[in-house]
Amino acid sequence: MKLVTVIAAAAGLLSSVVANDHPNIVLILADDMGVGDVSHDGGVAPTPHLDRLADEGMRFTDAHTTSSVCTPSRYGLLTGRYNWRTRLQRSVFFDVRDKPLIKDDESTIGSLLKEAGYSTAIIGKWHLGFEWQFKKSLWREHHLTGKGWDVDYSKPLITAPTANGFDYFYGIMASLDMAPYVYVENNQAVGVPDVTKAFHRPGAATSDFEANECLQVFAEKSVEFINAKAKEGQPFFLYLPLTSPHTPIVPSERWLGKSGIGKYGDFLMETDWVVGQVLAALEKNGVGENTLVLFTADNGCSPAAGIDELVAHGHLPNGKLRGAKADLYEGGHRVPTVVRWPGVVPAGSVTDRLTSLVDVYATFADIVGATPDASDGVDSISFYETLRNPEKGERGVAIVMHSFFGKFAIRHENWKLLFSAGSGGWSRPQHGNEGDPMWQLYDLDADLQESTNLLHEHPNKVKELHAMMIEFIRRGRSTPGAKQANDVEVAVPKVDDDSKKLPPVRMGI
Predict the structure, then answer these.
(1) Count of other CB atoms within 10 angstroms of residue 468
(2) Per-residue pLDDT for 331 more than 70?
(3) For 336-340, what is the mean pLDDT?
(4) If you compute the radius of gyration of the chain from its CA atoms, what whole number of angstroms results?
(5) Where in the chain is the domain with CATH 3.40.720.10?
(6) Per residue in 459-508, pLDDT tens?
(7) Residue 461: its H or E element
(8) What is the CATH number of domain 399-507?
(9) Can you tell me where the transmembrane regions are (predicted)?
(10) Cα separation of 57 and 339, whole Å?
(11) Mapping DSSP to helix (H, G, I), strand (E, B) and coil, where does residue 202 land?
(12) pLDDT at 9 over 70
């Protein structure tokens, strides 16, 4: 009996040691934040906590989202797979009836880490589709306006983030301008909407839901999670997708006027404050030294932020890059990215490794020693080696970006090919001006502002990049490994002798 007890105790000790070898992981995702929005990269609004992460960690100066809008870029981040392999070929989710984009059996960062022994949570904005239960009749709500009144909030969700590898969820369905305006905990709405509220798009809301309180709520819930899990000895993963500085731009009263450049700057400061709350909670619980904190954003700053007015105040939210949210140009998808991991990531380091947020999946797998199945993380390449040494770990493989209107761009080394005559998003010209070539090629080492189209000067480079794009589609993956299937047919432009007439061609799944 004593021998059994000793063996059991030893096994428990071994389990604890193995668990403690894995760092806690906190992934913070800002919503619509450009590279110039952080003060360590020229931003006017002070972001001291993000500056601290940069001082104590590593900045990625060439990091990109997989899409320049939120639903698809969040899919790529969580799954390690490009969104355009799914049914979401353009735009984002807007409606309560948008079914979950992540399939039930699809691996995510959450499920990957959960299988590695982590306690996992998401607190914040999901925007990848809930599966609600709906009412059979709306006669009681005939006088109420907006979306979301057809949901039966008294019943649990059929599918929530807890189905995708997260033990706990507290947050909202989508952006703060997309109804319903109600918090959900795990798979149950925490209240039943009783009023219509309009944060740009009117819809069902609970009386106590206020958009300018969301960051405070998410910060409090995050601190609660860290406080609880730090005591358990089990490694934890917190995914914290914020609602800021996306519209509606609604800083809480304590931050109004703090930045000196308007509400957008104030909202940036409050976003930074949330980061500070997380860092303080880690330190208070004595786990800061064994926690990897990764901060990034889902796409660049939106034109809705009033970019021209911000520039007039000396604040360049997307730096000197061309374009903004929704675009294929760099301002649409190059985002501020910083990682702090004491004892592993060199303090104050900088890397220019070409990085896509699709790479986070493989990186976390490397860190915990997981081996994903061949069908998982098919576009993800680990930057774990880079975290330890910023001079190492080149990606090697091209990355692909996708725009609001479903246009593609591919980047390999310094060359970037846009399969579009224009921005592919909201910036003008959206689809090119009359007489423009149908594609664009830029040498980003010489022309980061994407001002000189070299399409006709380098036809062999165009063919090379186009061939890569077709191969990525054909093989269902962009990384080495067994061929996989896309969920749908994927359309890319077809090379034609006349570069001004490049009709789309459909590739099989």
Answers:
(1) 17
(2) yes
(3) 98
(4) 23
(5) 21-388
(6) 999 999 999 999 999 999 999 999 999 999 998 767 543 334 433 433 33
(7) helix 459-475
(8) 3.30.1120.10
(9) none
(10) 5
(11) strand
(12) no
Crossing angle (nearest 10°) for helices 360-368 and 70-79: 20
**Residue 287: helix, strand or coil by DSSP?**
coil
Contact 242, 218 (CB under 8 A): yes
What is the spatial distance between Cα 348 and Cα 340, in angstroms, rounded to a whole number? 9
State how far the alpha carbon of 61 is from the alpha carbons of 142, 213, 324, in Å.
52, 32, 17
CA angle 81, 94, 246 (to 5 degrees): 80
Q: What angle do CA 288, 77, 107 make, to 5 degrees?
A: 95
The string of pLDDT tens digits covering residues 193-204 is 999 998 788 999
Would the pLDDT of 509 be above 60?
A: no
Rounded to an integer, what distance in angstroms lies between the CA atom of residue 160 and that of residue 128?
9
The angle at the Cα of 59, spanning 53 to 62, to the nearest 5 degrees, equals 150
Q: What percent of the chain has pLDDT over 70?
A: 92
What number of CA atoms fall less than 13 Å from residue 363's CA on the CB side?
A: 22
Tell me the CA distances in angstroms from 483 to 286, 375, 432, 468, 476, one per residue in order: 45, 9, 35, 15, 6
Residue with tokens 């001002």: 451
Q: How many CA atoms lie within 13 A of 232 on its CB side?
A: 13
Q: Percentage helix, strand, coil, to 5, in the chain?
A: 30, 20, 50
How many CB atoms within 10 Å of residue 184? 23
Token pair, residue 59, equals 């900045």
CATH 3.30.1120.10 intervals, the chain: 399-507
Q: Which strand ranges, in their side-by-side order, compose the sheet holding 337-340?
A: 188-189, 184-185, 168-172, 119-125, 236-241, 24-30, 291-297, 337-340, 58-60, 349-351
What secondary structure, in 3-state letters, does 336-369 show? CEEEECCCCCCCCEEECCCEEHHHHHHHHHHHHC
User: Cα–Cα distance between 394 and 387 in angstroms, integer?
Assistant: 11
Topology of the domain covering 21-388: Alkaline Phosphatase, subunit A (3.40.720)
Angle at CA 204, nearest 5°, toward 199 and 209?
65
pLDDT exceeds 70 at position 36? yes
> Is residue 331 within 8 Å of 301, Cβ to Cβ?
yes
Given a contact cutoff of 8 angstroms between Cβ atoms, the answer to whether 276 and 332 are in contact is: no
CA pair distance 4, 469, nearest whole angstrom: 59
Alpha carbon distance 346, 99 (integer Å): 42
Nearest alpha carbon to residue 214 among 162, 132, 270, 258: 270
Any idea what the Cα angle at residue 188 is, between residues 177 and 154, rounded to 5°?
A: 95
Position 432 scores a pLDDT of 86
